[in-house]
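#onboarding

Welcome to the new folks! Below is a worked example of what a typical request in this channel looks like: someone posts a single protein sequence, and someone else replies with the predicted structure as tokens. Don't worry about understanding the tokens yet, we'll cover that in week two.

Example request:
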Amino acid sequence: MPDITIELNNVAKRYWLRRGWYVTSLRDEMERLGARLLRRQVAPREEFWALRDITFSLKRGEVLGLVGPNGAGKSTLLKILSRVTVPTSGSFVVHGRLGALIEIGAGFHPELTGRENIALNGVILGMSRREIRSKFDRIVAFAELERFIDTPIKHYSSGMQMRLGFAVAAHTDPDVLLIDEILAVGDASFQAKCANKIAELKEQDKTIILCSHDLTNITDHCKSVLWVEGGRVRMLGETGTVLDAYLEHVAATMNAEAEHAQQQEPAAFDGLATIHEVTVLNGAEQQQTRFDRGDRIIIDITYSAAQPLPGAVFGVSVQDIQGYALGGVVTDPDSVKISAVDRGVLRLTLDPVLFNRGVYTLNINITDPTLKRTYDLKRRASRFAVEGSWATDRETSGHVHYPHRWESLR
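Example response:
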């Protein structure tokens, strides 16, 4: 089947664990052999399967999104495809030239200059010396490193190394391109440049695997998604269907983790004010955790106070699935006051919801901004998922939807 560019059959990867570290070196094995010869106790080893029974194939021109929690096996899968490591069992085939950006500085030598590392990395990726020379100026210009090209890359920042790595990988004229979460390191301008390069490769019918926690990137670029969980394929299919199932799973997992954390978390504050419960409701005031963009979300905060706290304010902040802050709101201390010893419920209404597809968590706090004092703080006190037909469209990007209207004035 000539159109198949990537094919994996029951690929598995096993590591041996000892004292919390991977045992992969010859030195480790020699130590174990010496211990046996001297009849000393050998430290026990434990199997860890990073991947099990991974089977799928991609045709020329397909763009596959790769999602899953940290430690699911996504990076291991990319390292196998890029031949950084070998599978323990199973087989895989990659047809054509491969370009990979799976780690900062992968294939680079820190003592060599940027110029020398372009030559080194280009050869590793299968470029000829003539091809490297012909594309050198374009690579340097894309990476925006003209001033530093003759500086050893040990002096480069992580962002500079990432730019150089992507520039080389993207200019190898790859038939298959593997991209890990590393693109999140770049600034907005470079991310736009990378997105344009990916679009150019898609137009050329290149096969791309894009691994990202940013579901907007997955939605924008990928027609299908592979969800990996615990080293196994959890789901493979059309982007919207897989992401809906993934978001539902993530929301349920976060609910369970938050409940466990709240049960285990010791009291960290003095008890003058306490947040007891945070409930997410829909517009009909019924508990709900899944919404579409444009819906109404009601957040009820149940709290108690041991004494009047006239300077206290309530704050609600929103984080994305990775915990990055997306902003929030606080109460006006002149209109919402804790003026008596009581137990109360404070309601926050978000109408309409302007978040794009994703899972979002809420941090709730009671603080006194004048005294710089925190009375209580509940991290990930509640969460909700935004999905549905309105949650994603071609005119929006990122986490927040901006109500807008385009007009042509000519």
